[in-house]
Write a structure and sequence with these properties.
Rossmann fold; alpha/beta; single chain; 6 helices
Length: 155
């Protein structure tokens, strides 16, 4: 049975597309389905930010074909786990449901890694170095997530 993972940030153009691409690169698509969304609908249908595309490409990951979409309450039923990049988006997501089981699906992405911070900072208004730092934080968390998901395959 396939595990379905959703990565969520504000606009779905910087952090969550990177998280989607990184986790996809670390897992078997037959076992794990990964998607991304934003809590705001500012960029629906757009490609990820060019700086996210560039940092992903630097590490051999192509996210250029992704398209931004807005998080929907339907996502609670369609995904097994929903990773928010920060507390603001976490609260925006759980505010959309009263269902305890749906709320339990939502986690902060960096809870999965050994990062010294709990939130993935939004690099949108900064320079390329911010995207590099975000990549490293997400990559570390995705290593841990992939390890868990890939071990399920062998059970």
């Amino acid at each position: 049975m396939q595990t379905k993972v959703l990565m969520v940030c504000l606009g779905n153009i910087c952090r969550s597309p990177l998280a989607e691409g990184i986790l996809k690169a670390k897992t078997d698509s037959q076992v794990v389905f990964v998607d991304s969304a934003g809590t705001a609908g500012y960029h629906i249908g757009n490609n990820p930010d060019m700086r996210s595309v560039a940092v992903a490409k630097k590490y051999g990951i192509d996210i250029s074909g992704q398209r931004c979409r807005k998080f929907s309450t339907i996502d609670f039923a369609q995904f097994d786990v929903i990773y928010a990049m920060d507390l603001s988006n976490y609260h925006d997501i759980i505010a959309l449901t009263d269902d305890k089981n749906e709320i339990e699906k939502v986690k902060l992405l960096l809870e999965e890694g050994n990062a010294s911070v709990s939130e993935v900072p939004d690099p949108y208004y900064g320079g390329a170095d911010g995207f590099e730092e975000v990549y490293k934080l997400i990559n570390q968390a995705c290593n841990m997530i992939a390890k868990k998901l890939n071990s399920k395959r062998s059970l």
